[in-house]
Amino acid sequence: MPLLLTPPTPMILKEQISSGKINLTAIVNTHHHWDHAGGNKKLLAHSEFKGKPIIGGKDCEGVTQTPKNGEGFKIGDIVVKALYTPCHTQDSICWFMEDSTGKVIFTGDTLFHGGCGRFFEGTAEEMNTALNKTLAAVPDDTKVYPGHEYTKANVKFAMSVLQSEPVKALHAFAENNKETQGKFTIGDEKKHNVFMRMDDPEIQKATGKTDPVDVMAKLREMKNNFKPPSESKI
């Protein structure tokens, strides 16, 4: 029972749906930014798609349903749970989904492989809660699907902070694979994502902080200003 998550390109999707490659059941948004929810109204303007639900945070374009935090529901055979993760945006929701084939979570711009989103509408405390309390409580074998392919850039920063074996392994994978979404789990992120390792002595040393919120704030500041060695001379 296919869903569309964060549809910014309605014409491409319309072609896929009209050809029968996608059977549209619902649109699900992780947050309101245009590159995640900007295609909602254009897609549903087509007569064959009218009436389909748009499920997401309160600020998403054309939203028709906003589940409560932790609320579970079903779309076809898929069990879905909304996990509120405000910070990147205040309406950010990560979607945990499970069916007979396994568990996945769509994390939008909150959690990336080896990184996290910028704190556009929130604080370091909120991101620490989102990553290290809310998402860290998701089963370790849950596959992670971020909203963008940022792994290569993220792991370059991670390597500047922590040269652990899991981080090195992520670096090698990113260098040799163009697509990384869904290749790693929440359990993997706890090992190679520096933003989910606030208690790591090496990360605390790199940031000069020990309180988890302070570590998160400093780490994000460092990432915002980071330039890989190969780009520093440009």
What does this structure look like?
The chain is α/β, with parallel strands linked by helices. It contains nine helices and ten strands. Helices cover 34% and strands 17% of the residues. The strands form three sheets. It has a five-stranded mixed sheet, with no helix packed on it. A three-stranded parallel sheet has the order 1-2-3, with no helix packed on it. The chain has a two-stranded antiparallel sheet with strand order 8-9. Helix 4 (124-134) crosses helix 9 (212-224). The longest helix is centred in the last third of the chain and has 13 residues, at 212-224. The radius of gyration is 18 Å and the shape is globular.
What is the mean pLDDT? 90
Largest sheet: 5 strands, mixed
Order of helices and strands: EHEHHEEEEEEEHEHHHHH
Helix content: 25-40%
Radius of gyration, in angstroms, nearest whole number: 18 Å
Oligomer: single chain
Structural class based on helices, strands and sheet pairing: alpha/beta
- Cα(first) to Cα(last) distance is 48 Å
Strand content: 15-25%
